[in-house]
Amino acid sequence: MTICVALRAEAVAVRRGTRTSVTRVGMRAVRTPAPLPGDGPVAMLGVAGGVAPQVQVGDVVVASEVRADGVAVACPSAPLLAGALRRAGMRVHVGPIATQPKFADRDALALLAMTGVLAVDMETALIAAAAGDRPFAAVRVVTDTAGARLARPGIVRDGYRALRTLGQAARIVEQWAAVAAPREVRLAAPRSFCAGVERAIDIVERALDRFGAPVYVRRQIVHNAHIVASLEARGAVFVEELDEVPDGARVIFAAHGVAPTVRAVAANRRLDVIDATCPLVAKVHNEVRRYAARDATVFLIGHHDHEEVVGTVGEAAGNVVVVDSEAEADQAVATDPDNVAYVMQTTLAVDEAEGIAGRLRRRFPALVAPRSDDICYATSNRQLAVRDIAADSDLVLVVGSVNSSNSQRLVEVAERAGATAYLVDDAGEVELSWLAGAERIGITAGASAPPYLVDELVHCLAGLGPIEVHEVASVEENVTFTLPREVS
Ligand code: SF4
Description:
The protein is α/β, with parallel strands linked by helices. It is 37% helix and 22% strand. A hairpin with a 2-residue loop joins β4 and β5.
């Protein structure tokens, strides 16, 4: 790799952090050799002025793109690098860095801030251009801002700290460069949103459009941190319980469903309820009610504390026994062994759930099965699809949040198929070390993870070298659900 810096002090700081030789290009990059020395990735490191108000002295800015004279050069792998720097304890921003021929005054900084620029320097765009097709990254540590100009008391101390941070960042930039390589990316299909999740998000968005903010939502509408954050930004207020919702307000029940007691509380409080429970979860609730009406013991195969399971149990708490594992199936007790049935959480691993059902069947020959599969089409299809890419992948990345059951199951299915697999909320959570030696990367996403996060991850990998992207289609999906009347 090639590391470029402008100033002598920056070169000293970077050399402390890396073994890579450092090329001093001088202020305004006037001493940039042509071509740049070495091969492989190029990184521009140094200090810079902070432009955007959220960028403070001592913060690190990783360029998502580099701008100069109306031309922008993208740095696609910025989120990967930024994630690694954050895990090392640095406060990191990802966004555009602008290169200017001279020091920017207050007015120029204000103008740049209005265009979304985070930091300004005098060299990065020139080095990005000189890098050509080589993977490129720019990392700048902020020494001054509009409110903390260079000529100020404390600049020596702040400058020294910035250079120390720069040295630490250089070590991580070296790790970024070490995983730059051409790759094959295999995308599982189907992946990402299911019909139930699309419907739930649509319900919140339409409620916000129709009734205005705030719209209260009990629990996360779907288990994905990005979706929750974006709906919050639009005016949705997520609460744990209904006592956080003002009397008479509008509240949406999340896709995972609620127990009848929650509905009763909402009715007593005269809350205006819109139910975003997935119709396939509602189907399992109906089954439980039907079996309980015959006074059967209902084994609910699922995870004890998962929201969907808690809601389903609430339909007939006296009749339902949650069974989380084959060991629990061996111990499960029924009031009348001849009057027993089972249902499943919709987002389980198909093979594991079948194993548990098999144990119950052996112990209770009269066990009644659901009329149709409880594990929903989206869960089974995504598991099938990830299995199809796992065997031929050196690494499988599953995009999804840690509280997403179906995303977690995708990791387990990929592992059982022989792959090394990790769950990541977004590209920033991909650890650089995972990419070492991974030439074929499989990517999928849980049913609650938005498709754009997969696109961003692929884009990031493209910033580490040329990639060939193949979609491996396992099943076609065309399921849609209708909206509740309140928002249709
Ligand atoms: S994963 Fe299945 S049950 Fe859950 S919301 Fe999607 S379609 Fe409905």
